[in-house]
Amino acid sequence: MVRVLLVNPSSRGFYEGSQVEEAVPFQPCLSMAMLSSSLKKYGHDVKILDFNLKTVDEEVLVSTVKEFKPEYVGFTFVTPLFHIVQRLTCIVKKIDKKIKVVCGGPHSSSIPQRVLEESDVDIVVIGEGDIIILEIINNISNLKNVKGICFKQEKKIILNPRRELIPNLDVLPFPDWEAFDLRMYNKSSRLVSRKSPLGFIETSRGCVFDCCFCNKSLVGRTFRAKSAKRVVAEMEYMLRKGFQEIYVVDDGFTTDMGRASEVCKTIMKKNLMFPWTLTSGVRVDRVTQELFEELKMAGCYRVAFGIESGNEAVLKDFGKHIKLDQVRRAVNWATKAGLETLGFFMLALPADTESSMQDTIDFAKQLDLSVAKFTITIPYPGTKLFNDYDAKKLIKSKDWKNYDVYKPNELFNHPTLEWDTIYKYHKKAFRSFYFRPKYIIKRFVNSSIKQRTLVTDIKSFFSIKW
C-alpha cells in the first residue's frame, strides 16, 4: 500500500473576466475520482486536493503534503494550466525530493518529453491512466516495463511505447465520489444546471471523426462505450451519493444511437427522476427525432451540438463533414421534442475569412437555439491544426498559459485573417446573437419553465460580460 495525493489545479482563472464567466460548470473532478477508485480498489491510500474550490493556496499544498506524507503526487491538467503545475510540482519537490510526481491529461499526453524538460515532473502518463497509474506503482524500480509513460532516469528522458486502449470500459470501477464533500460544490450557475451539486459522467471514450482542432492523444479515435446497464447503474450510484443533476461529458454519446436509446429506455424502466444533459455536444448526423423524444422522456433537458461553422466549405476544410441542412434538421428535432439547445461555434478556423465568419454569425441567428457559444479557434498541442501551423511557422507563442480559449491571445498567424478582425467578429457574434429582440423576448417568456424564474434568468443573462 502506498499513499497517493491527487491534486486538481484550479481552472477558475480561465473564466474570470471572460464572456462566459457566469456559465461555468462547478463540480468535483471526474478524472481524479476515476483514478482514486482504481487506486483504492488495490488497497492504496488516496487523498484528493481540489483547488477549484478556491484559488491555489500554496500553504494548503505544503501542509497537506507534510501531514499526509504521500509517496506519489499526481496532477491532471490541460494546456493553459501547465504553468500552475510547474509551480506546484516545485513546491512538492522542495518538501521531499523522494516524492514521485506523476502527470497526465491531454497536454501531458501530447508533448510528454517537453513536460518533463520544463518541470520537476518525474513521470508522464500518455493516454488513459486508469491502469497505467497502478502499473507505475507496481514497477517503480523498473519503469521500462510500463507501457504508456515517459519518464526521467537520471539525466535521460525515456519514452516507452503506448499502452493499448482499454477495450471494455464496464470493467472500470465507479468513480470515487466519496472522496469529495459534495456540499462544497453546491454553487453552479442557473445557466449551467437546474440543480446542484452537478456531477459529470463518462459513458464512452474515443471519437472516430477527424476535426483538425481535436486532440486524440488521450483516449484515441476508437469508440468504446459502457453498456446501457452500466451507465444507468453509475447514474444511480451518483444520485445515491448526493448529486442532483448529471452532465454527460462524452465526445460522442450518440455515436452508437442504439446504445443511447437503450440508456434512455433503461432510465425510464427504472422510473428514475433526475435532470441530466448532453452539454458537451453531439453530432448532428448521429441523431433522430425519435432519439430526442426518448431523451426528453428520460429526463434529459438540454442537448448541445458541435456546429462550429455556418459555411460548408470551412466545415469540409477542417474535417467536420456535416451539412448545414443536417444542422437545421437536428436543432428543429430537438426543439420539437422540448429540449433546450446549445450550439458551439468557432471563429478563425483555418479556412475562415471575414465572409465565412459572418456566415457563421448569420447561421447561428437563423437556428432556433436556446444558447450559442462562440470561441476563437486555438491550435492546442497534439492536434493536426497545431502540427500544421507549427510546420508552417505560424505559431507565434508556446507560452502555454496563454492557450486559454476564453481569453485568447495572438498565439498564431492566421492564414487569411488579422487578429483585430478576429476579435471584432468574436465580440460581434455574441452581441448579434444575444441582443436580438426576438431572442430576448423568447428567452424571458420561457424563463419560468420548471425550476427557473424570470428574476434568476434576467440576472444570469445580463451578468455575462459582453
Structure description:
Helix content is 36%, strand content 16%. It has 466 residues and is of the alpha/beta class. It has two domains: 3-159, 3-Layer(aba) Sandwich (Rossmann fold); 193-434, TIM Barrel (Alpha-Beta Barrel). The strands form three sheets. A seven-stranded mixed beta sheet has the order 2-1-3-4-5-6-7, with helices on both faces. The protein has a six-stranded parallel beta sheet with strand order 8-11-12-13-14-15, covered by helices on one side. A two-stranded antiparallel sheet has the order 9-10. Strand 11, helix 8 (257-269) and strand 12 form a beta-alpha-beta unit. The longest helix is centred in the C-terminal third of the chain and has 16 residues, at 419-434. The chain is globular and about 60 Å long. It starts with a strand and ends with a helix.
**Low-pLDDT runs:** 448-466
Helix content estimate: 25-40%
CATH topology-level fold name of the largest domain: TIM Barrel
The secondary structure category is alpha/beta
Distance between the termini: 51 Å
Main β-sheet description? 7 strands, mixed
Number of domains: 2
Instruction: Give the overall shape.
Output: globular
| CATH structural architecture of the largest domain | Alpha-Beta Barrel
Q: What is the CATH top level name of the largest domain?
A: Alpha Beta
Specify Rg, calculated over alpha carbons. 22 Å
- Considering the protein shown, what is the CATH homologous superfamily of the largest domain? Aldolase class I
DSSP strand count: 15
Helix run count:
16
| Overall pLDDT confidence | 91
